[in-house]
Design brief:
mainly alpha, homodimer, 16 helices
Chain lengths: 340, 340
């Protein structure tokens, strides 16, 4: 099969229609996953389901559990373990989001107030810890040490990535390769684990597991690079969070690295004042966005993400054509075609 | 054997001499545990060992790993798994402390600046997550699902206890039984798991596991009740943290519950102004300490803790006399004789 290369002009895959096609394939599995999520969020301590469900039912795309479910279906898996593992993956993701939003003091996510904006920072730290713990309880009940290893390893790598991101924040000497290392760890690792688990639950070969793991890794990288680019290009409404959050927080992402490296001495001084010295003036975000456009830095990030999405799709080359394989390819295309 | 009841006057067990006796029994095991801790703290991300070791090597008493090691020795365990499990228990404890100190905005612990006081709140949240994750990686490598279940369950109960504590903070309607539920979950659960693991690693019967689990549970309760009482009685130096921290944070602990319930209308008004309305005036801490002394509330807490320590010791009644059993009894006595 020849995998067509997406043209560099922006294709636009409508989020609703992509999700509709996925639901046609794994709608029942997603319902089963949601039932497990609701049941496992339960606790005698009322604040846990309240706060947990605020985020977990806030209209996230469920991309990570979708990966697990879709890969399991790709391999014709007929049991129920995939829905449990998909729920665990979503719990781990939610726990990291709760902690992320506390660490970043974020006000909005998915168009809603963050848990920390509503309840303060204490409860989200502790409810995040609960979700991590509950995830491991669910995995112990599932009882497969290999699955436990994949997710314990993923959690360690993710937290290392988060610390790494903290270390390089506000540092314009951050290289593209350091940035990609953070992206790989903090985002792509869980995508990779989610996809791999779909192969593990189906009892597939190490080579097949590995191909799906790589697919998830590249998909996750593409997804995060685009996510970071959107912070300088999207409208608040499309983004669901506040445009310019990364800029205000001094996060060094690909568009910034590119615009800084390509920038004039005066432009570099601007970037340093904002991101390193954290001395912001009125109009700085508008100037940052203008510089990023002028230097072609969004286009640069988009091209990088497209190469990653292509690498993701190439991992699927050896699998026979099927609706599930088409859906995995669609997900890769979707990851780089979100609204700019 | 008759277990002697500690008299109500304060016995004073010197911390150094207690630790010396323990080291004579399990000194080598503690060294092995420390080696594992150092090795497993390692990460490519330098900030993780830096921040982790700041707390983990800050002169904590290592009570929880000591429990695992001592119980394993009580049963004549001759392998090396106990040191690994002891290290995991200390990692989980350290992760909860890192998150606790962020949540409480604490400035000092064990006489040193807290991680959040030095590095801000972001890194301790993320390094805490790393320690949780690394713990589960170590448990997966150990490969015993029963051990994994005990610690995954413990982590979930601990985080529930932490959230519960948050919910009842600043609420003087908190009952003694609600307070004890928080103490049991947030502290005693890990003591219980640590002691139980010493029996599990030794392959003992369910009844023996359970007796040691109960021993740890009661020991942990006694320890925490005393810890909370010390906040109104100790000197800063003896406490290692700042006296009155709990008071400033509006934590509702046993001495406060007792003093409030026994207090006059005017005294209750004082407690409500401070702990519920958070309207503090100069001299409030001194007044709180005076009221707690006047109402016999420290003595009340001390008696409750002593009953718990006795219950802990009673769990050991069926085990033959041995230096390890004596050391476990000593630990129970020590837990209620720390300096007032």
């Amino acid at each position: 099969m020849s995998l067509s290369h997406t043209p560099v002009t922006t294709t636009s895959l409508d989020s609703a229609s992509v999700l509709q096609r996925l639901h046609a394939l794994i709608g029942d599995d997603l319902l089963a996953t949601n039932r497990i999520i609701v049941a496992q969020l339960d606790s005698q301590v009322e604040m846990i389901p309240t706060l947990g469900s605020h985020l977990i039912n806030s209209g996230g795309k469920r991309l990570r559990p979708i990966l697990t479910l879709l890969v399991a279906r790709l391999f014709g898996y007929a049991g129920e373990g995939h829905a449990l593992l998909a729920a665990v993956v979503e719990f781990i993701h939610t726990a990291t989001l709760l902690h992320d939003d506390v660490v970043d003091k974020s006000e909005r996510r998915r168009g809603k107030l963050t848990a920390n904006a509503i309840w303060g920072s204490k409860a989200p730290v502790l409810v995040g810890d609960f979700l991590f713990s509950r995830s491991f309880q669910m995995l112990v009940a599932y009882g497969d040490l290999k699955v436990l290893r994949i997710l314990a390893d993923a959690c360690a790598v993710i937290s290392e990535g988060e610390v790494m991101q903290l270390v390089v924040s506000n540092d314009l000497a951050t290289t593209e390769s350091q940035y990609l290392e953070v992206v790989s760890r903090k985002t792509a690792t869980l995508f990779a684990a989610a996809a791999r688990l779909g192969a593990v639950v189906s009892g597939r070969s190490e080579a097949e597991e590995s191909a799906l793991g790589h697919y998830g890794e590249y998909l996750g990288r593409a997804f995060q690079v685009i996510d970071d680019a959107l912070d300088y290009s999207s409208s608040d409404e499309a983004l669901g969070k506040t445009v310019g959050d990364d800029f205000q927080e001094g996060k060094i992402t690909l568009p910034v690295i590119h615009a800084y490296q390509q920038g004039s001495a005066e432009e570099r001084q601007f970037w340093r004042r904002c991101l390193e010295d954290k001395e912001y003036q009125a109009g700085d975000l508008q100037r940052a966005i203008a510089l990023i456009h002028a230097r072609g830095s969004l286009q640069y990030a988009l091209q990088a993400a497209r190469r990653m999405a292509e690498e993701a799709k190439e991992q699927l080359a050896d699998f026979p054509a099927s609706p599930e394989r088409e859906a995995l390819i669609l997900l890769a295309d979707f990851s780089v075609s979100r609204s700019f």
